[in-house]
From TrEMBL:
Signal peptide range in chain numbering: 1-20
Entry-linked SUPFAM superfamilies: Bacterial exopeptidase dimerisation domain, Zn-dependent exopeptidases
Cofactor(s) the protein needs: Zn(2+)
Record keyword Signal present: yes
The entry's keywords: Hydrolase, Metal-binding, Signal, Zinc
Residue intervals of the Peptidase M20 dimerisation domain: 213-325
Full protein name: M20/M25/M40 family metallo-hydrolase
């Protein structure tokens, strides 16, 4: 009964005026996505039920094998790039060679999630039109959309001539170190491509699907302050103020003087006292001290997010000048260190042109145009590592809520919607001359 209702729904869709602008091959893609939706959801469930927290290297590899089994029958040459030396599992890369001289597409997603094996959140549960589970959207839902779109292209014959590289990282949620190795192959793939499409989630605002042509950077920083220690009876006098007061001065000056458009600055962890130090993962700080001792050390850690390399360089220089200026009495040193991070993806004319192409697909499907999303509403991601070399578009995955929490839910009807959009967009781009 369900299959018959689905067939009727597909027939009604293809008979509607909205699809009149679609070619027969594009109508075939739309029909295939709908007809295979149960298969796609089955793949999503299997992926979600396999834990692939970034640090679960075997789990990440297992999800990679699931995707290999999907791509090889479509004619992709699939290889696994092991990266144990970075502390991570590695990446899956699949290539499909098509007609010479046509645009080369790079499809980006990731196999890992933020939920490690010790998380109580481990299984996929269907809740009506929602799928509840770890990574159900971010990014296993996006990978499911990608596979559904490629299968639709295969069924319609448009994959045959397409030059496509699928690049699924195993450490998007927590990149391996050093990044020079962890992102080496992704950067090389970007240099070899003409268009990059990111299959992380679709953002909706008040029911409106949004297009994403930019995303901000993400870079952590560590601040360490040292000062003379003494009895608290001398605080503010000859003994100075100690490290905690100086740390507070610096952080509050950041708060007052750094704000500008598209920039956010956060303090996520701080501590000070007679001793203060981060653990190996810099996720905890251990401090000791007493109320009657002027603190000789204080530390803080946070992140910085910006929209362009120029903005990052300028803000970092301003932060360093704040650290260096007008130190309180008794301070013996202050050091601000910026760690490796995710670069920004600036909103270029080339990126906007790809969104325009997607909106022509939307028009031919009878869907509303997708306005460009404010980049401050989008987190960092892997496509930013190739943004300097290739035009790109973000958000080809499904809509969701609660990502990175135990409330993560994917909007299941947006999986076939996004797969249809992606299949038609990729087919049109893939036949264009370079």
């Amino acid at each position: 009964m369900i299959g018959r209702l689905l067939a009727l729904a597909v027939a009604a869709f293809l008979a509607s005026p909205a699809t009149a602008a679609l070619t027969p091959a594009e109508q075939r893609m739309a029909a295939t996505v709908q007809a295979e939706n149960d298969r796609t959801l089955g793949l999503l469930e299997r992926m979600v039920n396999q834990n692939s927290g970034t640090l679960n290297l075997a789990g990440v590899e297992a999800v990679g094998r699931m995707i290999r089994a999907e791509l090889e029958p479509l004619g992709f040459q699939v290889r696994w790039i092991p990266l144990r030396e970075t502390g991570r599992a590695g990446h899956l890369v699949a290539t499909h060679k098509g007609r010479a001289g046509t645009k080369r597409l790079l499809l980006i997603g990731h196999l890992d999630t933020v939920f490690e094996p010790d998380s109580p959140f481990q299984r996929f549960v269907r809740e009506g039109n929602k799928g509840h589970g770890p990574g159900a959207s971010d990014d296993k839902g996006g990978v499911a959309v990608m596979i559904a779109a490629l299968r639709a292209m295969q069924a319609a014959g448009t994959l045959r001539g397409a030059n496509v590289t699928v690049f699924l990282t195993g450490d998007e949620e927590d990149a391996g170190s050093p990044q020079a190795i962890a992102r080496r192959d992704l950067i090389a793939a970007g240099k070899a491509a003409d268009v990059a499409l990111d299959f992380e989630g679709l953002v909706r605002e008040n029911g409106q699907d949004m297009g994403s042509v930019a995303r901000r950077s993400a870079q952590d920083w560590v601040l360490t302050v040292r000062a003379r220690s003494a009895h608290s009876s001398g605080v503010g006098g000859g003994s100075g103020y100690g490290a905690i007061y100086e740390l507070t001065r610096i952080l509050d000056t950041f708060r007052r003087e750094l704000p500008e458009p598209n920039l956010t600055y956060n303090v996520g962890l701080a501590g000070g006292g007679t001793t203060a130090a981060f653990d190996a993962g810099k996720a905890r700080v251990e401090a000791t001290g007493k109320p009657n001792i002027i603190a000789p050390v204080a530390v803080a850690r946070g992140d910085l997010r910006a929209l362009s390399a120029e903005q990052i360089a300028r803000v970092q220089a301003k932060m360093q000048s704040i650290v260096a200026q007008n130190r309180l009495a008794g301070v013996t040193g202050a050091e601000l260190v910026f760690e490796e991070g995710y670069p920004p993806m600036a909103p270029t004319a080339g990126n906007r042109a790809i969104l325009d192409r997607l909106n022509r697909v939307n028009a031919d499907l009878g869907l509303r145009a997708m306005p460009a999303l404010d980049p401050i509403k989008r987190g960092a991601g892997d496509i930013s590592f190739v943004a300097a070399d290739v035009d790109g578009l973000i958000g080809l995955g499904p809509a969701s809520s609660g990502d990175h929490t135990a409330e993560e839910r994917v909007d299941l009807p947006t999986i076939p919607l996004q797969a249809t959009r992606a299949a038609i967009l990729m087919s049109r781009l893939a036949r264009e001359r370079r």
